[in-house]
Specification:
alpha/beta; QueA-like; 2 domains; nine-stranded mixed beta sheet; 11 helices; 28% strand; globular
Length: 410
């Protein structure tokens, strides 16, 4: 499919009726007792998530997104009584997530601001006790960037990091479509059991079904479990409001992939099963980073960022091994032990998959880019899959049931 044809995809063709009662407002008490739809060779069946290890072929490898959700939403109250909600999206100074969350005096973030009309100037303040001392956090609004604003944070205690401030003052930002307030239980249930690297404002929800017992069973079969990091932004919930996908602007997502995973992808012929669409976007972005290096071996880090429509510009023929070797050569040249980059990749019908063979994923919102990704993966057979899930009492969205899909062109 040519780029022009791809951009002409109409979002109304990716709609389906989703009654509110089918949206899971809370998770099941036992994560791995959720239903699991299986799609392979055009056949649809279902079991339970605890059965996943037995369904994985011996030559598979699982790739997880190990990002951890931060308590990114803070509520400030002005002297007038107006409540201003500040939702931290991504760090600007320092730009690195880890460095920003470890900052001990000040930092700057790109934020969404609720009730922004009530905050025209001046600092907002939040105070709390820490080590028998009152700590005051000041927030000052800066320039507007798209839907967000630059916000400078400053606090008067160098023994506390910004990450600790968020843990104390912040609220876990559960998805807006749950239509409820965050509860204490969400702090546990809205994190995967393998989450490690703080930075996301939304969970990679396909991984919420995994338990230590399921992971142990996967490893007992000799199937490698590998990790990467993509910090999920609020843009993952951004609805497609345009008639065609051409007018939809994908958000930037920051990725970090270890040399060891790239080496595994280079030398191994195992079938790659990505846990979640975030892992899919990261793995497929690796291919287009490699393509940039193929065209320009001296490319800078900035030039390696994957742009939204890059995959549809031509029909590259690099193999997975060749692509990963180019990235390994780049890491050698730069003396780095991991690839850190950014991607705006959009995966829609017409996309050719280069790395991922299987996906473990939840059931996504109508008219969303995630549903378009699923359609691309199953060669357009998404509606039959979703009709099956709806008719077999599957629970939908972040806290809902799961699916295990094999590529439609395999």
């Amino acid at each position: 499919m040519k780029m022009l044809d791809t951009q002409d995809i109409r979002i109304e063709d990716y709609d389906y009726p989703l009654p509110d009662e089918r949206v899971a407002k809370f998770p099941l008490a036992q994560r791995d007792s959720s239903q699991l739809l299986i799609y392979k060779d055009g056949e649809i069946t279902h079991k339970h998530f605890a059965d996943l290890p037995s369904l994985l072929p011996d030559d598979a490898m699982l790739v997880f997104n190990n990002t951890r959700v931060i308590q990114a939403r803070m509520r400030f109250r002005k002297p007038t009584g107006a409540v201003i909600e500040v939702f931290c999206l991504e760090p600007l100074l320092p730009v690195d997530y880890a460095l920003s969350l470890q900052s001990t005096h000040s930092c700057r973030w790109l934020c969404l601001i609720g009730n922004a009309k009530k905050w025209k100037e001046g600092a907002l303040q939040l105070s709390f006790a820490h080590n028998d001392r009152e700590v005051t956090l000041n927030a000052r609004r800066g320039a507007q960037r798209g839907d967000g604003y630059e916000v400078d944070f400053e606090w008067n205690d160098d023994t506390i990091t910004f990450g600790e401030l968020l843990e104390t003052l912040g609220e876990l930002p559960i998805p807006p479509y749950l239509n409820r307030a965050t509860e204490e239980s969400d702090k546990t249930t809205y994190q995967t059991v393998y989450s490690k690297i703080e930075g996301s404002v939304a969970a990679p929800t396909a991984g919420l079904h995994f338990t230590p017992a399921v992971l142990d069973a996967v490893r007992a079969k000799g199937i490698p479990t590998c990790e990467l990091t993509l910090h999920v932004g609020a843009g993952t919930f951004k609805p497609v409001k345009s008639d065609t996908i051409a007018e939809h602007e994908m958000h930037t997502e920051y990725i970090s992939v270890s040399r060891s995973l790239i080496e595994e992808l280079c030398r191994s012929t195992r079938r790659v099963v990505a846990v979640g669409t975030t892992s899919v976007r990261t793995l497929e972005s690796l291919y287009y980073i490699a393509l940039s290096l193929y065209r320009n071996p001296q490319a800078t880090a900035e030039q390696l960022r994957v742009q939204q429509w890059a995959p549809y510009a031509d029909n590259p023929t690099l193999s997975r091994a060749e692509a990963m070797q180019l990235i390994l050569d780049y890491l050698d040249r730069t003396g780095a032990d991991r690839l850190v980059s950014a991607t705006r990749i959009i995966i829609v019908p017409g996309y050719k998959f280069h790395i991922v063979d299987g996906i473990v994923t939840n059931f996504h919102q109508p008219r969303s880019t995630l549903l378009l990704l699923i359609s691309a993966f199953v060669s357009g057979d998404w509606r039959r899959i979703y009709d099956y899930a709806l008719s077999h009492d599957f629970r939908f969205l972040s806290y809902g049931d799961s699916s295990f899909l094999w590529r439609g062109d395999k």
